[in-house]
């Protein structure tokens, strides 16, 4: 039986970001929702891809990285069929992989504007996810 490794929300976010960077996701944002009233999770990690194929690859990479680091599968996932907006729900961290045009349409960053936001530099090497820090 595979033992699930308990990860903090920050550690899980690092694995998610690493998976995104592996497939050249763009505009990666980590939103800390812990101090937002009525938030449905602790963190959103949002990114964009250019094509249906790329967003599918990004979501698969995130799933693989999280599983490698924790033996955890998403509690829930949506959007794998239409590949415009793929959601991976890890309970404390919800991952949103958008096709660029869909991300602009839904504009989650504005909807959850009270969240502390960390923008991930795309030049960060995928081999070094520990370089991500949460700041005010």
TrEMBL record:
State where the protein is found: Cytoplasm
Q: Which residues cross the membrane?
A: none
* Keywords carried by this UniProt record: Cytoplasm, Repressor, Translation regulation
Q: What would be one Pfam family of this protein?
A: RsfS
Record-linked Gene3D superfamilies: Beta Polymerase, domain 2
InterPro entries in UniProt: Iojap/RsfS/C7orf30, NT_sf
**Subunit structure comment from the entry:** Interacts with ribosomal protein uL14 (rplN).
The family note in this entry says: Belongs to the Iojap/RsfS family.
Purpose: Functions as a ribosomal silencing factor. Interacts with ribosomal protein uL14 (rplN), blocking formation of intersubunit bridge B8. Prevents association of the 30S and 50S ribosomal subunits and the formation of functional ribosomes, thus repressing translation.
This one is known as Ribosomal silencing factor RsfS
Q: Which organism is it from?
A: Emticicia oligotrophica (strain DSM 17448 / CIP 109782 / MTCC 6937 / GPTSA100-15)
Name of encoding gene: rsfS
């Amino acid at each position: 039986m595979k033992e699930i490794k308990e990860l903090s929300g920050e550690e899980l976010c690092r694995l998610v970001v690493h998976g995104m960077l592996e497939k050249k996701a763009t505009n990666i944002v980590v939103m800390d929702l812990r101090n937002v009233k009525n938030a449905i999770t602790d963190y959103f990690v949002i990114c964009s891809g250019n094509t249906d194929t790329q967003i599918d690859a990004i979501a698969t990479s995130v799933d693989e990285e999280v599983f490698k680091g924790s033996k955890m599968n998403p509690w829930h996932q949506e959007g794998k069929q239409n590949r415009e907006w793929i959601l991976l729900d890890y309970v404390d961290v919800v991952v949103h992989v958008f096709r660029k045009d869909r991300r602009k349409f839904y504009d989650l960053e504005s909807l959850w504007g009270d969240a502390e936001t960390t923008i991930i530099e795309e030049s960060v090497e995928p081999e070094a996810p520990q370089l991500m820090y949460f700041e005010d």
